[in-house]
Amino acid sequence: MISLSDLELLNLIQDPKSKEKGYRLLIELYQKRVYGIARKMVIDHEDADDITQITFIKAFKNFQNFNGNSSIFTWLYRIATNESLNFLQKRKRRFFFSIEDHEEVLKKQIDTSPLLDGDEIERKLQKALLTLPEKQRLVFNLRFYEDLSYDEISKITDTSVGGLKASYHHAVKKLENELKDK
């Protein structure tokens, strides 16, 4: 994998001669991670793929608005997490799912998708994650799977570090209880 600093990547993207190369590198550097967070939130491969594409399209369209107050990684993750949460809200409204029905649909996708990696324990954890409120699930995924610091998650979610620690703690307790019952 190519290692570039944010400044180098920004310079490539802002230079009309190297803009296309800069965007290709941006995708190469972050596509798998953006897809991973979307996939953990929406479960379905095609939906996560769509969210990943939307994330990069929004990034390309709005790169002039990137102010450098955070890393490019944080900025992309913020777009991806917002798109994931928006997608889940739209899906619930569009299909008039109750929260329980929505969880059942996603749990069936976990069981039947040949594209989901992991053994039975991982599938149980993924199903248990679906019982969490979406924001708690997001915080858990970013902290546990992506191994991000609370400061990084705070920048992505625009939430206080204290609030994130509480969300993560509650998520872990709920998951422990959910998995204990299985």
TrEMBL record:
Record-linked Pfam families: Sigma70_r2, Sigma70_r4_2
Keywords of the record: DNA-binding, Sigma factor, Transcription, Transcription regulation
Keyword Nucleus: no
PROSITE patterns in the record: SIGMA70_ECF (PS01063)
Keyword Calcium: no
Name of the featured protein: RNA polymerase sigma factor
SUPFAM superfamilies named among the record's database cross-references: Sigma2 domain of RNA polymerase sigma factors (SSF88946), Sigma3 and sigma4 domains of RNA polymerase sigma factors (SSF88659)
InterPro entries: RNA_pol_sigma-70-like (IPR039425), RNA_pol_sigma-70_dom (IPR014284), RNA_pol_sigma70_ECF_CS (IPR000838), RNA_pol_sigma70_r2 (IPR007627), RNA_pol_sigma70_r4_t2 (IPR013249), RNA_pol_sigma_r2 (IPR013325), RNA_pol_sigma_r3/r4-like (IPR013324), WH-like_DNA-bd_sf (IPR036388)
Family from the record: Belongs to the sigma-70 factor family. ECF subfamily.
GO annotation terms (biological process): DNA-templated transcription initiation
Entry superkingdom: Bacteria
GO MF annotation: an example: DNA binding
Domain RNA polymerase sigma-70 region: 26-94
Residue ranges of every copy of the RNA polymerase sigma factor 70 region 4 type domain listed in the record: 123-175
